[in-house]
C-alpha cells in the first residue's frame, strides 16, 4: 500500500487521523522506525527553515541577554551603594514572568487566528522598538519619583520588561507552529534538535559573555558620539529588530486550513485546546513529560546555588558553571539526536532519557564534595534531558493539526511556565526540611516515575490501536 511505502505528508496524516485513528497510529509508529536517516542535511538545505533559524538566533540572543542588560541598568542607575541588588532584580524577574502565566494560552488562540509569519515579524520588531526607545524613556523619567522608594525610571523599566515578555508569549507559539509548516514530517526531529542546540548555545553565550558583550556595545556606541550608557539597549533592541527583518523573507505558505476559522470567545478556544489534549493521548503524554522535565530543571536552578556552596572549589555565586555545563551537555546531545535519533521512536528516546536523567541526579546527589563529578553529572543530565525534550516537542508538532497548534503551544507555554514557577518556591523549602541530597534523590524518583508512566501509556495505546 502506498501509505506504507513512503512518509505521508503531515496534512494527509491529520485527515487520516480524523477518518481512521487506528490506521494513523500504525503508520506513524512504523514510519518513526524506518525513516531514512539524513541527519541535519535536509533542513540545512531548506531555505525556509534557514530563514526561521536566522530569526531564532537573533531573537533568542536578545532574550538571553535581556536580564543581564536589566541588571546592568539597575546597577548603574537605580541601586544604592551597599544595597543588595536582589531587591531590584526580583521585581524585574516577576515582571518578566507574569505575562507567561497570564497570556500564554490567550496568545496561542490568536496565533491560530492570525498569520503566523506576521506574528513572528511584528513581535520581534515591536520588541526591538521598545528596547531602542528605552534610553529615551529613562532619560525623561530621570529623577522623578512616584513614591519615596519607587522612581518613574524603575517603573518604566518594569513596564518595558512586562511588554517585551508579553510579546514573547505571541512569538513562542508562532515559532513552534511554523516549524511543521516549513519542515517535512520526517525532518522534524532534526529541526527540533538544531533548534535546541541553538537555544542551549545562546544560553551559554548569555551566561558567559553577556556582560562583556554589553560593555563592548556601550563603548562602541559611545565612540559614535552617542551617550555611552545606551549601548546595551541598542544591542538588544537591534537584535530583536534584525530578527524581525530576517523573518520578513520567510515564506510559510500558510492556507486558510492552517488558521482557525472560528470567531468564538477566546476562552472557548482555550477550552477547545484543553479538550484536544484530553482526547489525543500522544500529545498529552508528551506534554506531561515536558512539564516534569522543566519542573525538575527549575528546581535545580534553585538547588544549584546550594550545590555550588557545598563544593569546595566553588562559591555560591558561581552556580552558573553548573548550569552552563548542563546546557553544554544538552547542546551536544541535541546535535547527536538530530543525526541519529531517526533510528528510534520518540517514545524510546524519551524512556532512555528519563532513565539517564534519573541516574544522573542520583550521581549528582553524591557529588556535593567533588567538582569534577558534579560537572560530569550535570553534563550527563543535560545530555539525557535532550532525549526527552526534543522527541516530545516533535511529537506535539507532528500530532497536532495546523489550526490547533497555536492553542496547543500556547497552553504548553502556559503550563510549563506555571510548572517552572512552583519549584522555584518549593525547592528551597524542601531543601531546608529534608536536605540537599534527599531533594535531588526525590527529583530522580519523579523523573523515573514520569518516564515509566509515559512509556507504559505509549505501549498500551499502540497495543489498543493495533
Describe the structure concisely for a colleague:
By secondary structure, the chain is an all-alpha fold. The protein is built from 17 helices and two strands. It has two domains: 40-251, Up-down Bundle (Growth Hormone, Chain: A), CATH 1.20.1250.20; 266-465, Growth Hormone, Chain: A (Up-down Bundle).
Question: Which SSEs are present, and which pair or pack?
Answer:
Blueprint: H1 2-5, H2 10-19, H3 21-34, H4 41-44, H5 47-78, H6 86-113, H7 116-141, E1 145-147, E2 150-151, H8 152-182, H9 188-223, H10 231-247, H11 266-279, H12 281-310, H13 320-340, H14 346-365, H15 371-399, H16 405-434, H17 436-465
Antiparallel strand pairs: 1-2
Overview of the structural elements:
The chain has 466 residues and is an all-alpha fold. The protein folds into two domains: 40-251, Up-down Bundle (Growth Hormone, Chain: A); 266-465, Growth Hormone, Chain: A (Up-down Bundle), CATH 1.20.1250. It has helices at residues 2-5, 10-19, 21-34, 41-44, 47-78, 86-113, 116-141, 152-182, 188-223, 231-247, 266-279, 281-310, 320-340, 346-365, 371-399, 405-434, 436-465, and strands at residues 145-147, 150-151. A two-stranded antiparallel ribbon has the order 1-2. α6 runs antiparallel to α16 (405-434), α7 (116-141) packs antiparallel against α8 and α9 packs across α13 (320-340). The two termini are 17 Å apart. The model is unreliable at 1-35 (pLDDT under 50).
